[in-house]
Every structure is written in C-alpha cells, then in structure tokens.
Amino acid sequence: MDEFMRIAIDEAKKGLSEGGIPIGSALVKDGKLVARGRNKRVQEQNPILHGEMDCMNNAGRIGSYRNTVMYSTLMPCYMCAGTIVQFKIPKVVVGESKTFPGAKEFMESHGVEVIDLNNSECIEMMESFIQEKPELWNEDIGE
C-alpha cells in the first residue's frame, strides 16, 4: 500500500478512537508529506472540519498547490471537492467510494485526476462506522 494512503488510514483510525468519524487525509507535495488531517467535526464541534479541510488547515500556506496530491480514505464531498478545485490540486487518491460516492464527477469536470483504490480496509472501516452510528454519519453528510 502507498505510504501516504497508510497515513490517511492512520488518521482515520485516530479520529475514530477520539469518538469522531473515521475519515483521514494526507497532502503530498513533490513526493513529500506536507500535512495530515482527519475529520474532527465531532471532536471540535465544527461542521466544516472534514478530513481534507483539517489537512489543508494543517498545511497552512504552502504557495501553489499545483504539484500536490490529496489522499483521502473516502471520496471527498462537494465542500472538500470545491476546496480541491479552488486551490487547483491536480490529483486526488481516495481509499473508497462504495460507502459514499462524493463529488468525483465534479472534480473530474474541473480537471482533477481522481483515483479510487477501492481499498477493503477503508470500506470495512466506513461500513462498520455507518452501521454503528448512522445518526452521526447522516449528520456528517447533511442528511
């Protein structure tokens, strides 16, 4: 497995252990880790602190994002996809989109390369979470 997806999965597991939603991310620039993040909506009572948003916040100002890759354990939602498009992140590698289809077509329509790994560990982690805490999951996706 790619080392950066492993970092994103580790972040997702940290979030779950904190009572949050198990979605993690990592931002890579020129082949080097810039930042990592996880969904902290529950932990910080912040409705927009999804995994990718936390990761971008942790990265801070890095200048251009044109040589970056965003890794996420789950297909980004429209909010996170909008941030990816806004900052011209050219590539997103996701663990899975089985449990949540997200905004793949939106990103692709704006020139973002999206790679879906269909990773069984990511799928199992989200399926278990959704089954155990459906109300929290529905809140996260705006249902």
Describe the structure.
The longest helix is centred in the N-terminal third of the chain and has 15 residues. The mean pLDDT is 95. β4, α5 and β5 form a beta-alpha-beta unit. The chain contains 7 helices and 5 strands; from the N terminus they run αββααβαβαβαα. The chain has a 5-stranded mixed sheet. Helix content is 44%, strand content 18%. α6 packs across α7. The chain is an alpha/beta fold and 143 residues long.
| Shape summary | globular
Report strand order across the widest sheet.
2-1-3-4-5
Q: What structural category do the secondary elements indicate? A: alpha/beta
Based on CA atoms alone, the radius of gyration comes out at 14 Å
Q: Main beta sheet, described? A: 5 strands, mixed
Q: Helical proportion?
A: 40-55%
End-to-end CA span: 33 Å
> What series of H and E elements makes up the topology?
HEEHHEHEHEHH
| Count of helix runs | 7
Which spans have pLDDT < 50 for at least 5 consecutive residues?
Answer: none
Q: What is the average of the pLDDT values?
A: 95
Strand composition percent:
15-25%
How many extended strands?
A: 5
SSE blueprint and pairings:
Blueprint: H1 3-17, E1 24-29, E2 32-38, H2 41-44, H3 51-59, E3 68-72, H4 78-86, E4 91-94, H5 104-109, E5 113-116, H6 120-132, H7 134-140
Parallel strand pairs: 3-4, 4-5
Antiparallel strand pairs: 1-2, 1-3
Task: Summarize, please.
The protein has seven helices and five strands. By secondary structure, it is of the alpha/beta class.
